[in-house]
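Record type: monomer structure entry
Structure origin: computed from sequence
Chain ID: A
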Amino acid sequence: MTDTATAGATGSAAWAEALLQSFAKAGYQRAEPAFLQPAEPFLDLSGEDIRKSLFLTTDNSGEELCLRPDLTIPVARDYLASPMTGRVAGFCYLGPVFRQRGGRRSEFLQAGIESFGRSDRAAADAEMLALGLEATATFGVSEVEIRTGDVALFVALIDALGLYPVWRRRLMKDFNRSASLAADLERLTLAAGGGNEYEGVLAALAGSDRKAALALVTDLMSIAGATALGGRSVSEIADRFLEQSTLKSGALPRDALTKLKRFLSIAGEPREALKLLRALAADAQLDFGDAIDQFESRIGYMADRGIDLSKVTFSTSFGRGVDYYTGFEFELHRAGNGDEPLVAGGRYDGLMTRLGAPAAIPAVGFAIWIEAMTQSDRSGKGGAA
């Protein structure tokens, strides 16, 4: 490493240590998870696509391990293994994480906060955003773009629309992947405009009891003499066929598609977005008021924290590409650098049970990308909190 690079790294660490001191004053305890982690949680929660980014090894028992690619899951695992599990606890951290990043340094510093067990979700969400903004100020970054979203609103809308389960699963899966969600909407638009000669059969299968429909398709394939194909059993093929029949038939009324598109077009300053959401719920007679109330409560706590709401951009279609988020999401960007977040995070209540908690535990947090904070000419995507 050159003298300049060494000085830069030392400076980054000094800034980050000062940041941790401010987090400690806010009541967050220092966490130091192990460098070597079980690979399964990362692969399970982020998909096999993340495998190419991990540094993997295997222990003597055959368990697959990896160098930690971020700190959220390791901190959560340590919390669940501690006597504090299920109780209110907050942690801050600073340490190296490891990812293969195509020519860029594979080891880099990450700082952040994870908050567990707080039932006052709206207030906790606002606190995370406020602390994230304090972090950028600590590093001397004054011009920050604040981008926010709320996957809980999307979930509530989907539930209110009463979509078939297969479409609910598909749309939820693709919400954090804008290109995939756009493709879903395009498919629905085409389906709403006209079908094919099998549309009636496909729609009937889509609308029937899943268990009965699956049994029918399995029986028909057996009668036709179908056997295992490509390593899949008849029942697996039938299940896949049933899912595709629902997707191809459209299975979504035109008015539901219109409401969905109207929802996803809402963007702007949070208070204005709130008005548009209330108007949509009233005009479309959709019952997702509880999620809107939570959104409104968060806005109030953000204002109480001194956050200038006129500088906050909210979008109903904003997603961070992390499947385990369940509510509020945000990114802080250096003005003029749209690709790389300085700070990123959100609410992930569902993660804790997926990591083994016997009951859901509220959780929210964020990660700080020290590299991005200290070097404005870098590009690349940050990871998840």
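Annotation 1: The chain is about 50% helix and 15% strand.
Annotation 2: Residues 165-251 form one domain.
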